[in-house]
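Project outcomes to date are best conveyed with an example. Our students and postdoctoral researchers have been running inverse folding experiments weekly, and each run begins with a structure described purely in tokens. The record below, which covers 536 residues, was selected by the lab manager from last quarter's runs and is presented without edits.
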């Protein structure tokens, strides 16, 4: 809630209190009679009653003004507002929707915040992007106020091909129908032609990991302009950068780096294929020193919490300036940098945690926040803030299950971990479809993948390079050409894992699968957990 709205809420509450007090005094006057309350002229009594009614009416107006649903003024006036709709039984989903809208506003987007019972067919049809924060209550039931949406909107024969959407589903795994209403919304939107921005994010009992993942996805949607700190900062551990190399020298695309890290102390922890590394980025040492010099602070100043001022600035957004030269007050006002997520490309048995990422460049040519920190500013032996996060939605199927792996670009990182785990377990019924730009420069882990294929660890390997003269242009084209093989593998019980670009590749692969097996079978795959995606 912004300060102006908070002030209006306070004034509204004061007005309500004053109005109720005046009415109570009038009722008391009538009840006690003149013996306990001196008589007043009849006209005065009428004026008192009128004043009480006026104050009470003003109070009601103030409360309406504070709590009314409204569209925000932020962002480009030509951009349709992003709809953020919530369904909540206890108020938690509403709070998360408010945080979601605030995050998008910080990135310069207009938002339209609505309770789901205030969402109708016309609003959905006029929206281009919509985010739903959907709680499930009881044994898989929607919140009470969502029943109006279910009865008035969901039965209508809507077509929403223009709508991109995402669902944050809140639930409790101890109940059989976990996050049922969120999944019901997702299925209804897909059935009516809407396109998912990313897969439904499930939240078990306010799980902080899942909420950070949702915020990470919002950051991708909102763009780098968002200065929102993590809602629940990860408890980082210290890791050391042991090795870093460029995987695609000479590529026409951005540089791709392969990093190897190990814990500063102790042994390598365990993780599963598909899990995520949450990285805490830092500002470059040069940027911090320039800020300190420009604002006449000493980098070695020790703060009350024992950190140096330079260290506090390195982990925060650098402010435009400083109001005074109180270092502790400055540190208290800093906004911490949000985490970034990367698919883990290795398994613990390989002796290191490996990452693969493309260095992102801002419009002015400078490296992006997290990729610049990992690819440019750190040196071998430097400490990296890192935390492992389980990603159960992208964990592997049983080893006796055939596995189809589809990805492009740096999406090969998460797929490589799955292949490594499968090969180590003796599961060789694996089909990898991978796409990039040029075979000569962008076939990441190419020699290793071809070696695994020769030794029988990969049954089928289909590669597509869009800038070369090949049979197919993109990885989805290869999948479509082999739709008969796809149907056979699925008939054999295969699971599909997709990792890579949210824009272009992932929705195109989704369409190929629907065309190959039909919408009902596609939906059945998703429900059975045999079609999973980690896209960004």
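After processing, the design step wrote out the following sequence:
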């Amino acid at each position: 809630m912004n300060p102006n709205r908070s002030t209006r809420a306070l004034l509204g509450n004061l007005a309500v209190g004053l109005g109720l007090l005046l009415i109570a005094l009038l009722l008391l006057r009538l009840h006690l009679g003149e013996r306990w309350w001196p008589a007043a002229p009849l006209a005065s009594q009428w004026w008192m009653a009128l004043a009480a009614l006026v104050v009470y009416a003003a109070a009601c107006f103030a409360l309406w003004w504070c709590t009314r649903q409204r569209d925000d003024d932020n962002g480009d006036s030509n951009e349709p507002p992003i709809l953020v709709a919530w369904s909540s039984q206890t108020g938690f989903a509403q709070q998360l929707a408010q945080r979601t809208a605030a995050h998008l506003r910080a990135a310069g987007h207009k938002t339209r915040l609505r309770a789901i019972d205030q969402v109708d067919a016309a609003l959905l049809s006029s929206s281009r992007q919509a985010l739903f924060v959907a709680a499930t209550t009881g044994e898989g039931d929607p919140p009470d106020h969502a029943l109006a949406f279910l009865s008035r909107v969901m039965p209508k024969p809507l077509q929403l091909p223009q709508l991109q959407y995402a669902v944050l589903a809140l639930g409790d795994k101890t109940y059989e129908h976990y996050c049922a209403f969120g999944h019901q919304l997702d299925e209804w939107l897909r059935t009516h032609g809407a396109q998912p921005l990313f897969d439904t994010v499930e939240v078990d009992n306010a799980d902080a990991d899942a909420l950070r993942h949702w915020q990470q996805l919002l950051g991708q949607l909102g763009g780098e302009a968002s200065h929102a700190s993590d809602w629940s900062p990860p408890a980082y551990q210290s890791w050391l950068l042991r090795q870093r190399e460029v995987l695609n020298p000479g590529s026409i695309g951005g540089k791709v780096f392969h990093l190897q890290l190990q814990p500063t102390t102790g042994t390598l922890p365990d993780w599963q294929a598909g899990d995520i590394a949450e990285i805490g980025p830092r500002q470059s040492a040069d940027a911090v020193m320039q800020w300190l010099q420009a604002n006449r602070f000493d980098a070695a100043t020790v703060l009350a919490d024992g950190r140096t001022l330079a260290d506090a600035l390195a982990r925060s957004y650098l402010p435009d300036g400083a109001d005074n030269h109180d270092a502790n007050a400055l540190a208290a006002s800093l906004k911490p940098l949000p985490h970034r997520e990367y698919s883990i490309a290795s398994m613990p048995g390989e002796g290191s945690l490996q990452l693969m990422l493309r260095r992102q460049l801002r419009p002015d040519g400078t490296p992006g926040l997290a990729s610049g920190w990992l690819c440019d500013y750190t040196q071998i032996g430097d400490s990296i803030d890192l935390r492992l996060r389980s990603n159960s939605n992208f964990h592997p199927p049983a080893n006796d299950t055939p596995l189809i792996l589809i990805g492009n670009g740096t999406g090969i990182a998460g797929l490589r971990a799955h292949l490594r785990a499968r090969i180590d377990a003796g599961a060789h019924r694996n089909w990898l479809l991978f796409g990039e730009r040029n075979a000569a420069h962008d076939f990441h882990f190419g020699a290793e993948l071809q070696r695994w294929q020769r030794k029988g660890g990969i049954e089928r390997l289909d590669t597509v390079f869009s800038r070369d003269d090949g049979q197919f242009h993109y990885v989805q084209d290869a999948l479509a050409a082999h739709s008969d093989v796809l149907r056979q593998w699925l008939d054999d019980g295969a699971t599909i894992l997709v990792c890579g670009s949210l824009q272009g590749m992932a929705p195109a692969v989704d369409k190929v699968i629907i065309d190959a097996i039909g919408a009902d079978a596609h939906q059945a795959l998703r429900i059975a957990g045999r079609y999973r995606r980690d896209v960004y």
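The two ends are 30 Å apart (CA to CA). The mean pLDDT is 87. The training component of this project remains on track.
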